[in-house]
Structure formats: C-alpha cells, structure tokens
Design goal:
The structure is a homodimer. Chain A is of the alpha/beta class. Chain A is 41% helix and 16% strand. In chain A, helix 8 links the parallel strand 6 and strand 7. Chains A, B: Keywords: DNA-binding, Transcription, Transcription regulation.
Chain lengths: 335, 335
C-alpha cells in the first residue's frame, strides 16, 4: 500500500522505539505513527502487525510529539485552593471523570485562597501548554493570562464577573435553611457567617426566608474553621440564651457549633436545632448527624469540565447555576 | 552580538508569538528562545527588551516545544485511589509542594482501588510522557509499564515488593495503640480491622503490645466505612459486654464505633476508650475528639516526590519508612 508522506511523526521524547517498531513490523515510521494516531487509512493486517510489535517492544507512543504536531496538549489546568479539602476533592473527581472519557488529563496547581498564588499557578500551568483551565474559588478580580486564547472556567468564584462559571444558588440555599428551621418550629434563630460573597448570599436567602414569617435573627461572624464556630455560638448563647436554632455557613463551623452545644449541656435538636452548609463527607459523621444544605460538588466539577470542552471546541458556554438541596438528618429532628 | 544557531527553538503550540516578539525586540528567534530558557549568554539589555515585548504581546513560552527538545515533560504522574479522601488529599499537597519548587507539575489519574484501573491510569499518564510517577495505595502485584525507564514510586502499596516506596510503620502504630489503652487502665480490648496488609500489620503490633501485659483481645472485621465500624462494635458488645476499649484500623470506622457507643448509652472514655488510625481531618472533629495514630500524610507525599526527583536525576533511592505518632485526645481520656 502507498505510504503518505504528510503524516505527523510521533517522536518518543527519549528517542526510543518507533524506528524499531517500524523495522520489526516491516513498515515505514509514518505508518506506525498513523496506527497510533488512529488514522483510518491503515490496512487492518498492517495495523495488527504494528500493534503486536509495539506491544512486544513495550513501545508507548508519546503524546508530547503527537500533540505538538496537533497543536494540543490534551491537558487541562486546574487551580484549587487546597486539594485536601473534601469539597474540592469531590469537584476534582467530577472534573477528572469527564476529562478522562475524552482522554484528557488534569494538571494540578494550588492557590491557597490567595490571588497572587492563583496568578502564579495560572502562569505555571500555561508554561505546560494547557489547552484550557478551571479555577475553583478564584479570589482575584483580575483576568488570568490567556495566551493562545486559553479559556479559564470558574467554579464558585469570589467575584461573579467571569463569563464562564459554575456556581451554586447560595441565596436559595439560605432560603432552604430558613424553611427547615421554621418547619422544626424554631422562632429564635441565629446565623453564623464568614467573610466573602458565598456567606453573604446564604445570609440574604436565610433572612428573606425568615421574613416571610416576620421573624428576625441574630448573627455572628466566623471564618469557616471549627474553632470559630464554637466561639461564635458561645458568644451568641451568652447574649441570647433563648436561641433555639443555628444556620451555619459551613459544615466545619457547624461541627464547632455542635461542640459548643454539647459542652453547655444543650440537646440537639431538642433544645437547639442546627443546619450546616456543603455536605462534604463530614456532615454525616458528626454527632448528631448534621442536617445541611448540599452543594453538588461532584456535579459542579463535571459541569465545569464540560464547559471547558465546549470552549475548546469553539462553542459558546453559558454560566451554569446549580440548585442546592436540603439533606435532613438528626440535628433538626424528624418532621 | 553573535547569535548562536544551535539553541533549541521554543514553539508555541498554536504557532503564535515568538516570531512577533523577536521582530518587535529586533532580535532573532533563537535569542528570544534563549531568554526564556534562562541561557546565560544573553546581553542584559537584550534580555530586558525581549521580556518587555513578550509581556506587551501577552506571549507565554510553551514548555511543550522546549521540553521536547530537552527530552523531559517536567510532568510527574500521580495515581491516587480517590482524590476526595482527605488522607490522600494531604499526600497530594506534600507531593505538589516539593514538585512546585522544582517547576514540575502533577498530572492526576484515579485508580478507585482497582488494579485494572491502576494499570489503565498508568498507561494514560505515560501517553502524556510523564518523567516519572507516584502511585498511592497500589493494589497490583504486577509492575506498571515503564517505557523510557520511567520510575514509579509507591506510597503505602498493598504489596511490599516495590523497591521505591514510602510507607508507615503500621506495626509500630498498633503497638502505640496498645500502650495507650494500657495506660488508660483498660484490660478488655477489641480490634476492628479491615482487609489488606495495613490492617494486618496494625493488628500484629497491637497484639504484641498487649501480650507484654499477658492480655488477649477480641476482634471483628469491617471495611473502613463508618457503617462497618458501627456494626462491628455492635456485634462485639453483644457478645462481650465487658469490653472497655476499641482499637480501630481507620478513623472513619472509629466514627462508626463512637456512634454505636453513643446509641448504647456508653460513655467515652469513661466506660469505653477508643483509638483510631490516620488522623486526617476527621478525628479531631468527632465527639468526643478521637485519640488516634497519626500517619504523616503530607510528609509521606513530600518524601515520595523527593524519591521521584532522585530517580529522575539518576540517583539510587532507598525505601522510606515513617514512624507513626500517637495523638491523644478525648476518647482515651486524660493521663
């Protein structure tokens, strides 16, 4: 059969293999290359012979040379505040599953919730020629560098200014928390928030939900850590001993609230009901099991990966907003 | 100044930029390439002019072309059972910090604790021409493919046969748990284990520690899930109501044991003491806070990354064994 001469040649970065495969299979290097690039014009017998010889030699084609020819690295950059935070781990799982089906891989970098480190991470990823990028919980309000038209998709960014983004409807989440505490017959609620846009939106929805029953609420500020939850609950209970419900902006802070209640001898949910936010692994392991507002983190990651693929294909991508979901457990009691 | 002709030329994968930078800076493409490769022979004024023009054009050099010339991708493959498991997240953080200091990046793939998927993940990473790889909790006893001499470093592998590995001294961890329960005055202990080598080693150390005081122990098997911990504790307490201590092979199972004790009205640690294993985020958030045997996950990840760099540099790498550490909290009470 004729051997076309215009095929991209695969080069293994350490220079081994393809010549040997071609020699043993009795074909040209270009034919070996076409077999591994899935070009359709290779005779089936030839293809089989090449694959057998390649397997016998332990030859693995390198995507480095192939992708250079194609102008694609098949890598997607991912900037995440901290990979050891379970909510982000679930998002990464969702991203990875979608990309894996397309043969693409995640190149990982951490931002530690810092705008400067986020920018540095983006430059680092771009030096590896990523085809696109996803940023979880971006803290910057400046656009990340975008050479070669690389697109960045944002998941739950602090600033809602990015055209390609995936986020939760936090206002609706706050509304669900209010409804649940009202359902449990509570009239004296408090909100424990944290800095940033997400907490402010959760509070807005919570306040609106309580207002429909003409109820006000107390408030205190934490920082998403367990300790800050304990301290905020202690302050509120000192000043307002009649409180019978807490809505807390994150499950880790809610763990701290539960501890404050245990140490004061208050029963949950009999004396005080608690609703958290996130539903990563933690909530269901607390004692009592925590009622919380679920962020579909895996699904949000998967949606961000699909947006990235759309942009890579040159398609338009619209922002995606996920609805939150109430997960009722022991800390608000039975209906 | 003379322009050498033997310098590797940076090519941007979408073909943009370097020519334009060279033209605007009034230098050759090879000079632009040398500036971005940090070759020392570029005149400082020329270097500054090139960097200014590159910044103005938003030009980012691609490592794809550069690394192809160098024969290195600067990528390290990482195979992890599940990124959303906090212990692995901490290991990834340690790996990432060490590699980041060397300008290298992590390419991520998941194995879901399955030997076949681990092999598929390794092939996927190799197609991206990783320079080396790290496998967390490998389940296979067959060597992963190693074209071009790529080395795989194992962290806590199920089979202790790999020359390059990082692991915890699990036997010593079991010994620490026995000592802690003896210190707390317990004489009727049980072990709740799970399948696999790590649990078997933890039990071996636990048994040896108790034997020094001529004590036997009861045992039951779980599977590292919370529910299996609750069920195993229930079975043991039905049969042996006099039990006053549990050593549990993982913190998640220990959360289930605490729940079983709460539901039976048994006080922790007054009636029953509990020691877990891992000390990822969870242990300190349980009620009561869980005494546990700490795996230094971040440090183990960092050690694996350093082993990988040694192997890449052509140096020998010896296995690294980390000592475990007792973290005493509320579930075994004050000394």
């Amino acid at each position: 059969m004729p051997e076309p001469t215009s095929t991209a040649v695969i080069t293994s970065p350490r220079g081994s293999g393809i010549r040997e495969v071609a020699r043993l299979a009795g074909v040209s290097i270009a034919t070996v290359s076409r077999v591994f690039n899935d070009a359709s014009a290779v005779n089936p017998d030839t293809r089989r012979r090449v694959l057998e010889r390649a397997a016998a030699l332990g030859y693995e084609p390198s995507s480095l040379g192939r992708n250079l020819a194609r102008g694609r690295s098949e890598l997607l950059g991912l900037i995440v505040p901290d990979v050891s935070f379970p909510l982000y781990g679930q998002m990464i799982s969702g991203i990875e599953d979608v990309l894996g089906q397309r043969g693409m891989s995640i190149l990982l970098a951490s931002s530690h919730d810092d705008a400067d480190r986020e920018l540095a991470a983006s430059r680092h990823l771009l030096r590896h020629a990523v085809d696109g990028g996803i940023v979880i919980n971006s803290q910057t309000d400046a656009a990340l560098p975008s050479p070669r038209g690389v697109n960045w998709v944002h998941v739950s960014p602090e600033h809602g200014i990015w055209p390609c983004r995936v986020e939760l409807d936090n206002v609706a989440g706050g509304g669900l928390a209010a409804l649940e505490l009202l359902r449990a017959g509570r009239r004296h609620a408090a909100y424990i928030g944290a800095p940033g846009r997400e907490s402010a939106e959760r509070e807005r929805g919570f306040a609106a939900g309580l207002r429909r029953d003409d109820l006000a609420y107390r408030r205190a500020q934490g920082d998403y850590t367990e300790l800050s939850g304990t301290q905020a609950a202690d302050r509120l209970l000192e000043e307002f001993p009649a409180l019978d419900a807490f809505f807390v902006a994150g499950d880790l802070m809610a763990a701290g609230v539960l501890r404050a209640l245990h140490l004061r001898g208050l029963r949950v949910p009999d004396d005080v009901a608690v609703v958290g936010f996130d539903d990563a692994v933690l909530a269901s392991l607390l004692y009592p099991r925590l009622t919380t507002i679920r962020q579909p983190a895996y699904e949000m990651g998967a949606a961000a990966a699909r947006l990235s693929l759309q942009l890579l294909a040159g398609l338009r991508a619209e922002p995606v907003t996920f609805p939150p979901e109430l997960v009722r457990r022991e800390s608000t009691g039975p209906p």
